[in-house]
Specification:
It comes from Calidithermus terrae. This is TolC family protein. Residues 1-20 form the signal peptide. The chain is α+β, with helices and mostly antiparallel strands. It folds into 2 domains: 2-56 and 95-247 and 309-419, Outer membrane efflux proteins (OEP); 57-94 and 248-308, no CATH class. Helix content is 60%, strand content 17%. The protein has a 6-stranded antiparallel β-sheet with strand order 1-2-5-4-3-6. It starts with 5 loop residues before the first helix and ends in an 8-residue tail after the last helix.
Length: 427
Amino acid sequence: MRPILRGTALSLAWILASLAAAFGPEDALRYKDPRADLAKAQFDAAQQALQLAQGGFGAKALPTLALGQSPDAVFLESNPTSGYGLRLELGWTLNPGSVGQLARDLEDRRQSYLNLLRESTRLALQAHTRVWQQQLFLREAEARLGVARARLAAVRERREENQATALDLQRAELGVESAQLGVESARSALAAAQRDAARYGLRGNAEGRTVRFATPDVSPRTTTRYLNELATLTQIQIEARGANFSWLPGFRAGVGMTTARDSFGIGGSVSFNEGVFSVGTSLDLRSPSTDENAIDAPSWGFVLEAEIDLDALFFNTAYGANARLQSQNLVLQTLEAEIAADLRARRERLALLERRLTLGERAIVLEQQYLAQSKALYDRGDLTDEEYFDRIANVRDEIELSFTWGEYIDAVSEYLEITGLPWALRR
């Protein structure tokens, strides 16, 4: 009877032996999403934009070339004209609103980058888990096929001795066909899981082993959600401050001077409007004017402008901004306690899952000893084919451990998403 089942036994032995060179959770943890470099570049660009805005300095160079014609009043004809020049501008601007918005953009880019890293690692770990589970399901399916074949062989022997009916034989044959279909389905599912894992650089079989990830205790004020709401509060504060002073008139003062025949000019300006303060200076270098009527003496000028927002002067236009500010302050006051309770509950769940993992790891050690003992009894002839493969088909400790491992990965992922921390092994 045993030669009939030799193929199944060899297949099971191959599955168990192949795990020696399998990939584990650490390999999944090392996966790097190909989009990470682009996300990092976007974060670096946002950081540079914020630094430039905080410095407030700006510079421009404006070269010009002019071609045209001018009428000659004496000879009633047109004379060609041309000119060229270079304008240099240097300024400094203090714009809290722009800086606040860029700071918010930078935080959004940072979180997008870290979210991408966390999510890609979670997907790689889940891919490892699926391959591990499908390997166990294939082991179980092949063991059930071994049981079905053993039962069919026993029914055939009893049929030869007229101790089994034709119906018994048909049912046993159907059981083998059903078990064979189960094996083919399990192999197909394993191949699909391995193809998915290959997307993350994980090839071959999965090692049935678990690790523990770092999930440190953090302050609610450092969590992603709190930082988001704090950035919103900062932005609202800037808007409210601008609205409260919107009744103040904006002004601009400028002074300029040009040399003889407009070949050289210099100017400067100071302005304040809606909370934005700026200082600027300019330098113009131009080709001398060929106009015979051009003034040879230098000239200068001064201008002072004011802008008054009458709506802000006579009506309380800052009411809406102040209301949003009060509302956001209330949100932050209650949010810290809410996040602290959430973190505490999630740490408790993680602790329970880690205890389940520890118990599961102890259970599969005993399970492996049980399987080794069963194999020894089977080789000595103390177990029938049906008894041996029935034992293999009914061991469930490693399968349960793999599902607990999947729950643990999801729980860690949720905790890291809240805290904003990256995946890392516990040291």
